[in-house]
Design goal:
Layout lengths: L1 E6 L4 E7 L8 E4 L7 E6 L4 E6 L8 E6 L8 E6 L5 E6 L4 E6 L7 E7 L6 E3 L5 E5 L4 H4 L14 E5 L8
Antiparallel strand pairs: 1-2, 3-4, 4-5, 5-6, 7-8, 8-9, 9-10, 11-12, 12-13
């Protein structure tokens, strides 16, 4: 699988980077930090999260895997950054958890909280960073697909978690 970096003004691809076979790169979340050109990319196919950065501003992004299965990731299907860009939230569809990471140093995310949700998928955070909403259906045909094992979802819903915006935690 590959990630393409576009020059939007010229409407052309300026870089292509391989994140490995079967990575399933899914989402890009840009970090709003003055002077930095950084973004997180989740790759559910390899249960990894990558950081792309062009800190030296030479026009070429460096790609570094910053989280993976060794960090407890099992099919991270959604990723969200807090509005102040201090925390990253990940859903672990096979891991039945939502994880919060401190991304003060985006090259070394630190796990700050984990909560249980059966097969979590979509995340939304209130504008004040104080409420995290989680739903738990990926794609209904997949939720009970025997190729993925026994049926997983008999508790569909939306979960609400209080977040301490100052110190993290769910």
């Amino acid at each position: 699988g590959e990630v393409a970096v576009w020059d939007v003004a010229r409407q052309e691809v300026i870089q292509v980077e391989s994140l490995g076979d079967h990575n399933g790169a899914l989402e890009v979340r840009f970090i709003d930090e003055p002077g930095a050109r950084r973004a997180f990319i989740n790759a559910p196919g390899t249960s990894a999260v990558w950081l792309a950065d062009d800190d030296d501003r030479d026009g070429v992004f460096e790609f570094t895997q910053v989280l993976g299965p060794e960090d407890g990731l099992l099919l991270p299907v959604d990723m969200l950054l807090s509005h102040d860009h201090r925390y990253m939230y990940l859903t672990n569809w096979f891991g039945n958890t939502v994880q919060q990471f401190d991304i003060t140093d985006p090259f070394h995310p630190v796990l700050t909280a984990t909560v249980s949700v059966p097969h979590p998928n979509i995340l939304r955070l209130s504008p004040d960073n104080e409420r995290l909403y989680v739903s738990n259906s990926l794609l209904t045909p997949w939720d009970n697909d025997p190729d993925f094992g026994p049926p997983r979802n008999d508790r569909y819903g939306i979960w609400l978690f209080d977040v301490d915006p100052a110190t993290g935690g769910l």
